[in-house]
Design brief:
3-stranded antiparallel beta sheet, 2 domains, mainly alpha
Length: 169
């Protein structure tokens, strides 16, 4: 349902409600003059209640239509597929990175005497290969993907709370 259709439906509903109220007021006047009965008043009240319910349903239908249009425009499924594709590429790159570090570490460890500036550093979160004045660490894709996701969510949840600690999982 478009906004124009929604506006027309709302205008029609408002006109129907006004007509029902006018009819109800007319019945009340007729009762006061003795030309109508309580039964006529009950019928007018029932019609007014029916009109109010129809108005409520039209408003809900209009809201549902606008929500569906906005959800479709948001493109969550398309964005999800793109994000999954990007994550697949990132994790594959991390795995290739770790494979290269592991191969180098294996080769370094198989050497008897490594020249100065070459070593394998065995840390608590895995190993790294020392080459000259720098080192090449293994990546931790699960931790990095989690942290990236939380960082992005934090930026989008203006003022919202996201724990970056281990207690968040």
């Amino acid at each position: 349902m478009t906004e124009a259709q929604s506006a027309v439906g709302t205008e029609e509903a408002a006109a129907d409600m006004e007509a029902a109220r006018t009819g109800l007021e007319g019945v009340v006047e007729e009762i006061a003059r003795g030309r109508a009965t309580e039964r006529d008043l009950e019928g007018a009240r029932r019609r007014e209640a029916e009109e109010a319910e129809e108005e409520r349903l039209r408003a809900l239908e209009a809201l549902a239509g606008r929500t569906q249009e906005r959800v479709k425009a948001a493109g969550v499924q398309k964005a999800r597929k793109a994000a999954q594709k990007a994550l697949e590429a990132y994790v594959a790159a991390c795995m290739a990175h770790n494979e290269a570090v592991d191969e180098a570490a294996g080769a370094f460890l198989s050497e008897r005497d490594l020249p100065r500036g070459y070593a394998v550093d065995m840390g608590g979160d895995g190993h790294s290969v020392v080459v000259g004045s720098g080192s090449i660490r293994r990546t931790r894709p699960m931790v990095e993907v989690r942290d990236m996701g939380l960082e992005v969510l934090g930026r989008h949840l203006r003022g919202g709370y996201i724990s970056l600690g281990d207690d968040a999982y």
